[in-house]
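Worked example 2:
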Amino acid sequence: MKKFLLTSIIAVSLFSFDKLLPQKETINILKSTPIYNQIAPLLKDKKIKIKATQKEGFYIVELDTPRGKGIIYVTKDKKYTILGKVINNKTKQVVLPNFPKNTEIIKQGVMFTFGKGDKEIYLITDPECPFCRMMEKQKKELLEKNYKVHVILMPLPFHKDAKAMSYYILAGKNDKEKYERLKAVLSGNKEWKNYHPTKEEIKKFNEKLNKAKKAAMELGARGTPSVFDKDFNPIPWPNLGGEK
């Protein structure tokens, strides 16, 4: 059951200013669910964080566990627990929680900024990711002209060269040079292979990448590329330029 829970709950979260429910009330909601006995020891040992809000007849509870974040829905009468997506039949939209984001954590994860536009966005990218390269090819001019882009590098562990590429990018002297290096790597340039950081540089870069990872988790990113607006709401990257 524990494995089922951890693989079944949908790990998503969005920004809003809805009022969070008190912790005592959140725990009482969880006590009505079949998963409470599993998470009670984690709560006791403070190995799990919980927060909840109420929306459209549901309590929506986010669980931040050692294995990642997850969402459960509990009906207002506390008779039913839903593991998975809840969709509003009228709007066709997924009913999502409204949890505030930690702005400081997100901004600390920003590596550099580029672009001359008025709209601010946050871009989570992996320099070895094929979809990030596709985005670079399709949206580069749009991003440079229409947006101010705050870049958060997130080298994924299954991309063997992503971290070395990130080191090369972070070695840029300023925002402009870092952006030029990012573009070069995404376009297939191999210059990054000639860069060999010192142990001190690697330590410094890893500290920055750890902050970036925390920022990506705070935003709720589940892959690369991921794009969020100034209020930390997700934007599907193919829609850039057409969003309201």
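The radius of gyration is 20 Å. Residues 2-100 form one domain.
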